[in-house]
Amino acid sequence: MILWTIRHTKPYNPNDVCYGRLDFDVSPTFESEAAGALDAFQKSGAKPTRLFSSPLLRAYRLAEKAAQATGLEIEKNDAIIEVNFGSWEGQKLTAVPREEMHAWMNDLRGFRFPGGENFYDVDRRVESFLDSLPDDGEFLFVTHAGVIAALQHFACGLPDEDFVEGKFSYTMVTRFDLQRNAEGHFRGTFEKIYDGIQMPPLVMGD
User: Fold this and answer.
1) Residue-level pLDDT at 6
2) Which of 67, 85, 100, 157 has the highest count of CB atoms within 10 angstroms of its CB?
């Protein structure tokens, strides 16, 4: 299997709050951001036969552009939606209770956000969906940092201590080369094709 992922463009988040399931629309710079990502994607030689998108607007708007570029229909799928940050959604990270922030910093992928998910939950739902796809297909996911990181962790062996969810650029394009193992799970390697637009560092307080 060849799997391409494109992270969404910069969301419109003027108050700089934590967002996972919050359905922010795209920023005013959307058109140029999308054009850069899709140009790099097309020049890479990608030839996907199915296009999957997170249902959230910041991904779906980019998927609409990808559909125009590829001629594919968009298939929305909740499996590739962003992590649910629970009670942190809509808060500035500096306003999150310190004991919760410290617990997260001590277990970045395993900490369950109150009322939401942890990153292992994302691993499981993405892996389950990936396993349902054909071995010999070429697919495109327009999705989120948490989902792309999940693929790098469970499918490509990235160690948990390398917390990449907060480092990915907007519109980053990645290619995964995957084969199904004896247990029926896809495993393989990944390569970043396009850097995209660097996001500002997380401000988490002390």
Assistant:
1) 98
2) 85
pTM of the predicted protein model: 0.95
Provide the residue ranges of all domains of the chain, joining segments of one domain with +.
2-194
Among the CATH numbers 3.40.630.30, 3.40.50.1240, 3.50.50.60, 3.30.870.10, which is that of 2-194?
3.40.50.1240
Query: What confidence score (pLDDT) does residue 198 get?
Result: 84
Give pLDDT tens digits for 103-162.
999 999 999 999 999 999 999 999 999 999 999 999 999 999 999 999 999 999 999 999
Q: Across the chain, what does the average pLDDT equal?
A: 95
d(CA 196, CA 103) in angstroms, rounded, equals 31
What is the H or E stretch that residue 194 is in?
A: strand 186-194
The full 3-state SS of 51-103, as one line of letters, equals EEECCCHHHHHHHHHHHHHHCCCEEECHHHCCCCCHHHCCCCHHHCCHHHHHH
How many whole angstroms separate alpha carbon 22 and alpha carbon 16?
12
- Edge-to-edge strands, sheet with 50-53: 74-76, 50-53, 138-143, 2-7, 173-180, 186-194
